């Protein structure tokens, strides 16, 4: 086991400069871009950024250019292995098609959630977390 220094602060990002990264944000968006800069708050500057939308075994890329990400919005950050990325077997769709598929997927999830909530309500559970995230 390597006993080298491990950094849990933003200084741990120094090895990721000029590398292609995948970043998952708090709102669920997935961004892929080249890390150009960061600061002590882990705010990130990405170059040649794309927003990737996954639906089933398909994906679509929306070009976003230079992107500034506030550090508190980052959930996950990792280097993209381009060799593995090609072997995954996902099918790329045009942006318009993936946005339609994403909208359909969201509508289906909302319908299923309504059915689930109704069934729970009929069984005596009070489920109303649509307005807030309090339990």
Automatic annotation (TrEMBL):
Q: Name one GO cellular component term.
A: nucleus
Stretches assigned to coiled coil: none
Record-linked SMART domains:
Sm (SM00651)
One short Pfam name that applies is LSM
Span of domain Sm: 8-83
Main location per UniProt?
cytoplasm
**Molecular function GO terms recorded:** chromatin binding; mRNA binding
Domain of life (superkingdom) = Eukaryota
> Which CDD domains does the UniProt entry name for this protein?
LSm1 (cd01728)
Name one process (GO BP) from the record.
mRNA processing
Does the record bear Phosphoprotein in its keywords?
yes
Q: Where in the cell is it found?
A: Cytoplasm; Cytoplasm, P-body
Q: Which UniProt keywords apply?
A: Cytoplasm, mRNA processing, mRNA splicing, Phosphoprotein, Ribonucleoprotein, RNA-binding
Q: Which family does it belong to?
A: Belongs to the snRNP Sm proteins family.
Instruction: Give the multimer and partner information.
Output: Component of the heptameric LSM1-LSM7 complex that forms a seven-membered ring structure with a donut shape. Interacts with SLBP; interaction with SLBP occurs when histone mRNA is being rapidly degraded during the S phase. LSm subunits form a heteromer with a donut shape.
Q: What does this protein do?
A: Component of the cytoplasmic LSM1-LSM7 complex which is involved in mRNA degradation.
What is this protein identified as?
A: U6 snRNA-associated Sm-like protein LSm1
Q: Which organism is it from?
A: Hesseltinella vesiculosa
């Amino acid at each position: 086991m390597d006993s080298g220094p491990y950094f849990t602060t933003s200084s741990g990002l120094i090895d990721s400069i000029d590398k292609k990264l995948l970043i998952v944000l708090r709102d669920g968006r997935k961004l892929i871009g080249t890390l150009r800069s960061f600061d002590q708050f882990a705010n990130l500057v990405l170059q040649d950024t794309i927003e990737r939308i996954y639906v089933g075994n398909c994906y679509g890329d929306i070009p976003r250019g230079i992107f500034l990400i506030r550090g508190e919005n980052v959930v996950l950050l990792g280097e993209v292995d381009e060799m593995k990325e090609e072997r995954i077997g996902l099918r790329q769709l045009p942006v318009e098609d993936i946005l339609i598929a994403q909208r359909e997927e969201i509508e289906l999830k909302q319908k299923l959630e309504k059915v689930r909530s109704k069934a729970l309500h009929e069984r005596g559970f009070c489920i109303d977390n649509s307005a807030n995230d309090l339990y």
